[in-house]
Amino acid sequence: DTAVSQTPKYLVTQMGNDKSIKCEQNLGHDTMYWYKQDSKKFLKIMFSYNNKELIINETVPNRFSPKSPDKAHLNLHINSLELGDSAVYFCASSRPGGANTGELFFGEGSRLTVL
Amino acid sequence: DAKTTQPTSMDCAEGRAANLPCNHSTISGNEYVYWYRQIHSQGPQYIIHGLKNNETNEMASLIITEDRKSSTLILPHATLRDTAVYYCIAPPLTFGTGTRLQVTL
Predict the structure, then answer these.
(1) Which of A29, A84, A96, A114 has the most CB atoms around it within 10 Å of its CB?
(2) What is the pLDDT of residues B26-41, one digit of tens each?
(3) pLDDT digit string, tens, across residues B42-81
(4) A81 DSSP 8-state letter
């Protein structure tokens, strides 16, 4: 069983469209994250939720809206897609730990290509 | 929140030890250092973490300097499958660009 699963794995779409990426974890973790990895392989945190509550919200355009219906799911919705949104998006989860985040478990990534 | 810096790339011969350094001079007293690796375009994989003491597990060893301003990840007997990008991170959890380790025959 996959611990952290993301769908879709690949997504090709036109500029201006709205798309969503879904993430689910079956590890019983309370904290989930979204990361963006650009073409230069820089892996940057975007959002973090702890038990459905937003706790990290880095400088990300408000076209990106995370939604956590329950602590096992964290979905990422992107409005009005732009060319610069093309990247691989990784979902991750961890046990809560304050300053010590604990081990992060990553999904396999969702490669978004905006044409 | 700590910022980490790592060399862009390193080479290592198969069977030899790979020593990957990381500077985290602004790390706070209660912030752990974590190491991950990313093989090709897969999701990053946890390797090891530490606070003050040196740590060892089945994958690697972590040596943390006494002042906690730097650390070194050691893969004792590198194999071709260890070729990957290695990330050293501390809060705020941004991975940066890591060190690309190339293990060669």
Answers:
(1) A29
(2) 888 888 899 999 998 8
(3) 999 999 999 988 999 999 999 999 999 999 999 999 999 9
(4) -
- Give the pLDDT confidence of A39-69 residue by residue, as tens digits: 888 888 898 888 888 887 777 899 999 999 9
* Whole-number Å distance between alpha carbons of A6 and A16: 23
Count other C-beta atoms under 10 Å from residue B14's C-beta. 15
Three-class secondary structure of residue B80 per DSSP: helix
CA A20 – CA A8 distance, rounded (Å): 9
Q: Chain A: residue nearest B42 by CA?
A: A108
- Distance of alpha carbon A92 from alpha carbon A3, whole angstroms: 10
Cβ-based contacts of B30 with chain A (< 8 Å): 99-100
A56: Cβ contacts below 8 Å, ≥ 6 apart: A33, A45, A47, A48, B92, B93
- Among A38, A58, A61, A64, smallest CA distance to B92 is for A58
Residue in A41, A105, A107 closest to B97 by CB: A41
